[in-house]
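TetR family transcriptional regulator
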Amino acid sequence: MTQQERPVSAAVARRAELRERLLVAGRAAIEAGGLSSLKARDLAAAAGCAVGAIYTVFADLDELILAIGAGTLSALEGALESATGDAGAAADELSRLARGYLQFARAHETLWRALFEHRLGGRAVPAWFLEDQNRLFALIEAPLARLLPQEPPAARARLARSLFSAVHGVVFLGLEEKIAPTPAATLDAELERLVRAFAAGLAAESPAAQSPGSCAGSSSS
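Tokens:
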């Protein structure tokens, strides 16, 4: 290594180390008080740097929040992958995914909420963040492909997002308890019922269910 390379390498290492400290401090702030508690001055103090140093690593606080969100998505992806287990019946796998999502939201509520509370003020969401989101949707699309093997991939992708929206709505409102008090056992049962009904409805629409030899396709005498 030349003398010129050493300072450059040291600067890169310091920048990476500062980035990690800021991510840890930002994540801790959100966990403790939600997204609204993330302030540049407090963040700098927790990370042991000047306020201006934040912007040598991140373009702005939005970029920092997106990076924290990417870590949350990665943790959620790991939780959902461990929840899937053996493939089995498509409805069973969809149910396990929904339960895994609810369990993650309960365990990491402030970080989970921050994913949906953060706004970019009209700016486009970066492509790399959308790719992280799409990996989660792919976990839903896999059992949907077994449930509806003849459905075009684009249509399955839309169904995956529709199912996620429904599950997220039940989880969000259930944890918020603004509509009605929702005991944990009740929320678990209602989420299971929703996913099972969704899967049963799709199965009834499949060509196999509507074939002449199937119960759904036969007529009573």
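The radius of gyration is 22 Å.
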